[in-house]
């Protein structure tokens, strides 16, 4: 093999390797407790002075064993998220979690987490769950499963997913772990029909292939956020 060809192959391999590891870096210290009040703005949070860190920075009295109120929610669910904003010790650690309570026939409507994969464990009740793949030549494939107590399901990062309690007379509860300190949530209906200012009804009517009056009616609804 000519030296120039060998050098090109090595360069391409190095480039591919650098791209493969170009994700969130691993922490470079034991912890980086978020200084929520710092005026410095970075992609995340700057570190609190380690000498000022104490055990409370890694603790939150969340009472996640207590049921949440789902009756005030139009969709019949209540998501209690514990991310870096509630627990500064999560900063740079790449994890967060949520408790999700579902009323009978309640749902966590179709949504995405732009920065996290989610793994869901059912603690009580039954859930019908699923996610939809991104656009392909064969369309968007739906993967679904009915989960019982103790079952686990994974929703890949960025894909639209949902959970629904199909039982008429019993609530359900799940715990979700997410692979980001701040996973974000985009509820599809809220984002499309409840944005401020609203998306042009002409745009949405053409996108959904319905009459403009249907879009106007949808945009006039109150799109609430079930994430606390």
TrEMBL record:
Binding site for Mn(2+): 111, 113, 118, 161
Keyword DNA-binding on entry: no
Chain positions recorded as oxalate binding sites: 108, 113, 118
Domain Cupin type-1 residue range list: 62-216
Gene3D superfamilies documented for this protein: Jelly Rolls
Any single Gene Ontology cellular-component annotation: apoplast
InterPro entries: Cupin_1, Germin, Germin_Mn-BS, RmlC-like_jellyroll, RmlC_Cupin_sf
GO molecular function: manganese ion binding
Keyword annotations of the record: Apoplast, Disulfide bond, Manganese, Metal-binding, Secreted, Signal
Residues annotated as signal peptide: 1-22
Disulfide bond among keywords: yes
Location of this chain's protein in the cell: Secreted, Extracellular space, Apoplast
Disulphides: 32-47
UniProt family annotation: Belongs to the germin family.
Protein name listed in UniProt: Germin-like protein
Lineage, broadest ranks: Eukaryota, Viridiplantae, Streptophyta, Embryophyta, Tracheophyta
